[in-house]
């Protein structure tokens, strides 16, 4: 019973997806058609990217980058800008959740050393927004992008039009938020290089993960098939560092599978399929934003894609939908966990500040999206 409670608490979205899949299976009994439900390419790419990024993270590459960029940061504004930009741009490659896992604890440590604990709350919130919005710029920045890019057949210009205008607006807003208020010197900050570069061994492993990432990108852009790359990644990781298999978020992969089953079954029930198509079609932007507030943007993308005729608008909707509530993007939960660990009595204050900034960004970007959609 205790294990079930822990599972429900830590993997709520997976549990919901599993219940939906099971209930739908009671209506549409399992048969040979189930095998066609999953998008195996997306699942394979997610697995590969998660394990490759975990490998790079285990080498301390991202922490090294942070240490390097922070040397010489002498003021609160400069330090804040560097940390927000790190989350924003790194999330485009290493995903929003990994960016937050890497740089939020780093931020908490740096501000504690600098004696600016009172300013860290706003910065962590802005870092969270930066990671969620920066990650929308590339097909590999977050799971919903990878999935929608995989099933849509988007060209690079089509993908760019759906996301880059909002990435640009978000960057301007983030820098304005960082620069607002007075600046102060950051005293007594000592940046220590914690990661040891172990000569050829370090650079050899780094090169291996870089090559594997390049192969995955070739799959993303439909230059290589996913099957041989999946085998290559699995075998290489087994030889280089088999412990990385424990770093994969298998619950996320299972969540995808469960939603694929649920959607596949719903599409085989004519009345429900027709109703969902009627509700979603032509309203992908607002449907993506609103649905994400309740079930988060990754499952929202999977759910709504099965009944959408405009995946470009849906892509915009679920990415902007990562703003708003705390669960709109599950990556945001990472930030509050780290913050609450250091400041357990400030969790309520974090939620208030988080909600205010997220709603502000969501309103501005949603209005911009509606205007661009009207013009298009």
From TrEMBL:
<dbReference type="InterPro" id="IPR051475">
    <property type="entry name" value="Diverse_Ion_Transporter"/>
</dbReference>
<keyword id="KW-0813">Transport</keyword>
<dbReference type="Pfam" id="PF03600">
    <property type="entry name" value="CitMHS"/>
</dbReference>
<feature type="transmembrane region" description="Helical">
    <location>
        <begin position="159"/>
        <end position="181"/>
    </location>
</feature>
<feature type="transmembrane region" description="Helical">
    <location>
        <begin position="202"/>
        <end position="224"/>
    </location>
</feature>
<feature type="domain" description="Citrate transporter-like">
    <location>
        <begin position="18"/>
        <end position="304"/>
    </location>
</feature>
<keyword id="KW-1133">Transmembrane helix</keyword>
<protein>
    <submittedName>
        <fullName>Citrate transporter</fullName>
    </submittedName>
</protein>
<feature type="transmembrane region" description="Helical">
    <location>
        <begin position="244"/>
        <end position="264"/>
    </location>
</feature>
<feature type="transmembrane region" description="Helical">
    <location>
        <begin position="12"/>
        <end position="30"/>
    </location>
</feature>
<feature type="transmembrane region" description="Helical">
    <location>
        <begin position="82"/>
        <end position="111"/>
    </location>
</feature>
<feature type="transmembrane region" description="Helical">
    <location>
        <begin position="285"/>
        <end position="307"/>
    </location>
</feature>
<feature type="transmembrane region" description="Helical">
    <location>
        <begin position="42"/>
        <end position="70"/>
    </location>
</feature>
<feature type="transmembrane region" description="Helical">
    <location>
        <begin position="313"/>
        <end position="339"/>
    </location>
</feature>
<dbReference type="InterPro" id="IPR004680">
    <property type="entry name" value="Cit_transptr-like_dom"/>
</dbReference>
<dbReference type="GO" id="GO:0055085">
    <property type="term" value="P:transmembrane transport"/>
</dbReference>
<feature type="transmembrane region" description="Helical">
    <location>
        <begin position="351"/>
        <end position="372"/>
    </location>
</feature>
<dbReference type="GO" id="GO:0016020">
    <property type="term" value="C:membrane"/>
</dbReference>
<keyword id="KW-0472">Membrane</keyword>
<keyword id="KW-0812">Transmembrane</keyword>
């Amino acid at each position: 019973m205790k294990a079930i409670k822990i599972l429900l608490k830590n993997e709520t979205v997976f549990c919901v997806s599993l219940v939906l899949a099971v209930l739908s299976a009671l209506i549409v009994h399992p048969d040979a058609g189930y095998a066609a439900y999953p998008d195996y390419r997306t699942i394979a790419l997610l697995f590969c990217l998660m394990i490759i990024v975990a490998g790079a993270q285990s080498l301390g590459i991202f922490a090294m980058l942070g240490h390097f960029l922070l040397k010489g940061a002498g003021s609160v504004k400069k330090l804040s800008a560097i940390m927000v930009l790190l989350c924003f741009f790194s999330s485009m490659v290493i995903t929003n959740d990994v960016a937050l896992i890497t740089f939020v604890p780093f931020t908490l440590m740096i501000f504690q050393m600098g004696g600016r604990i009172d300013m860290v709350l706003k910065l962590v919130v802005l870092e969270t927004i930066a990671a969620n919005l920066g990650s929308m710029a590339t097909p590999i920045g977050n799971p919903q992008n990878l999935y929608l890019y995989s099933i849509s057949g988007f060209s690079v210009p089509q993908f760019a039009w759906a996301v880059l205008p909002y990435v640009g607006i978000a960057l301007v807003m983030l820098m304005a938020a960082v620069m607002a208020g007075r600046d102060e010197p950051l005293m007594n900050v000592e940046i220590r290089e914690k990661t040891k570069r172990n000569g050829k061994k370090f650079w050899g492993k780094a090169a291996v993960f870089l090559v594997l990432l390049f192969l995955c990108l070739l799959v993303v852009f439909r230059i290589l098939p996913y099957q041989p790359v999946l085998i290559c990644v699995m075998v290489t990781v087994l030889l280089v560092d088999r412990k990385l298999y424990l770093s994969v978020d298998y619950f996320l992969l299972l969540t995808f599978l469960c939603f694929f089953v649920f959607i596949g079954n719903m599409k085989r029930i004519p009345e429900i399929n027709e109703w969902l198509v009627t509700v979603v079609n032509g309203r992908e932007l607002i449907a993506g934003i609103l649905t994400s507030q309740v079930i988060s943007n990754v499952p929202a993308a999977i759910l709504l894609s099965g009944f959408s005729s405009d995946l470009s608008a849906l892509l915009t909707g679920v990415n902007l939908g990562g703003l708003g509530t705390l669960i709109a993007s599950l990556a945001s939960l990472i930030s509050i966990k780290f913050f609450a660990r250091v400041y357990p009595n400030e969790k309520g204050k974090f939620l208030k500040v988080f909600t205010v900034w997220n709603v502000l960004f969501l309103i501005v970007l949603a209005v911009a999206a509606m205007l661009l959609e009207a013009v298009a």
